[in-house]
Amino acid sequence: MLSTIKLNDDMISLLNSKGINVIMPKENIANKDWIKENIENATSMLLTFIRFDKELIDMAKNLKLIVATSSGYDHIDVEYAEKKGICVANQPEAIAHSVAEHAVGMTISLSKRIIQGDRYVWNKEWEGFPGFLTGNLLKDKNIGIVGMGRIGVLISSYLRSFKIRKILYFSRKRKYEIEILLKAEPASLERIFKEADIIYLTLPYSKETQNIVNLDLLMSMKKGSILISLGRGKVLKTSDLIALLNNRKDVMLGLDVFEEEPLPKDSPLLDDKFKDQLLLTPHMSGPSKETSQITIHMALKQLIHYYEKGTVWNPVTNSCKESHDIENYWEFLY
């Protein structure tokens, strides 16, 4: 197994006990040249955010499995890996709570205008009652989840505690158990953008989801609504966001992901005139001090499961066989 990160002794011992030999860099994270030198004989790979393209896939003559140590996998040429019969799996579970908490934090900050209030005090402008900073309750609001995966489910679950009214969701598949447990309703994108007071985008990146939220949908947003994007930045076009902000002064956006990252210093999103409508964070919602090692450990468990049973829990390509044996897999999550 080729690891692009330096593993600790306990992790190495775990893999060795399963008969899996580990090749890893001396540094904390490998670079592309190191991968080129070591990839040829690897049968499996633990991959961080290093770009794994056609060139590297062609050099990996014996590779059968790539486990990404992240929820996102757009740094992997998944389509070409599929052609080569390589199973690609991702690791979304451990960060789900962190992303969902970030979403709720953004929601409260925007709804209650907390950031604007903080600036108002720091700028020494507070003289009387700041009525213009009056925010809104979450109670009785309709929310829309675009991408009802683990993160979307957790966001919905958290927000139920605030006595929200409706949960509308858009997903590739009906989630009947979620409809029962959280009283969620399946809905079209058009309905979500017209009816929801707060919309959450938690979609992964793919050809199908790229720019899936267009300007027409954005402009149809309910008056005074909030849009929070936490999945992948390429679901939205920056130019569409700018058009929305220029034409709809009543809406607010919370963005943790962007079409181009890091966000360019000359990005039109950083225009001061949008400050009161935007809450921007630098793709920081996923990592937390508690989940970084958990993510790697769970990725290793998925890799071991593949060697032992030929299946993975989180398949990305059709070359994988999906496992429904979740005994002990969720030990860190609840």
Give me the count of strands: 11
Oligomeric organization of the protein chains:
single chain
Measured distance between first and last alpha carbons: 29 Å
CATH top level of the largest domain is: Alpha Beta
The amount of helix comes to: 25-40%
Beta-strand content estimate: 5-15%
Number of domains: 2
Biggest sheet, strands in spatial order? Answer: 7-6-5-8-9-10-11
Globular, elongated, flat, extended or rod-shaped: what is the shape?
A: elongated
Uncertain runs are none
Average per-residue pLDDT, rounded, comes to 93
Give the full name of the CATH homologous superfamily of the largest domain: NAD(P)-binding Rossmann-like Domain
Biggest sheet record: 7 strands, parallel
List the helices and strands and how they pair.
Layout: E1 2-3, H1 9-17, H2 32-38, E2 44-47, H3 54-59, E3 65-68, H4 78-83, E4 87-89, H5 93-111, H6 114-122, E5 143-146, H7 150-160, E6 167-170, H8 176-181, E7 184-186, H9 189-195, E8 198-201, H10 215-219, E9 226-229, H11 238-247, E10 252-255, E11 278-280, H12 292-309
Parallel strand pairs: 1-2, 2-3, 3-4, 5-6, 5-8, 6-7, 8-9, 9-10, 10-11
List keywords for this structure.
single chain, 334 residues, alpha/beta, Rossmann fold, seven-stranded parallel beta sheet, four-stranded parallel beta sheet, 12% strand, elongated
Would you summarize the structure shown here?
This protein is of the alpha/beta class and 334 residues long.
Written description of the protein model:
The protein has two domains: 2-90 and 289-309, Rossmann fold (3-Layer(aba) Sandwich); 96-280, NAD(P)-binding Rossmann-like Domain (Rossmann fold), CATH 3.40.50.720. The chain is built from twelve helices and eleven strands. It has helices spanning 9-17, 32-38, 54-59, 78-83, 93-111, 114-122, 150-160, 176-181, 189-195, 215-219, 238-247, 292-309, and strands at residues 2-3, 44-47, 65-68, 87-89, 143-146, 167-170, 184-186, 198-201, 226-229, 252-255, 278-280. The strands form two sheets. The protein has a seven-stranded parallel sheet with strand order 7-6-5-8-9-10-11, with helices on both faces. α8 links the parallel β6 and β7 (184-186). α5 (93-111) crosses α7 (150-160).
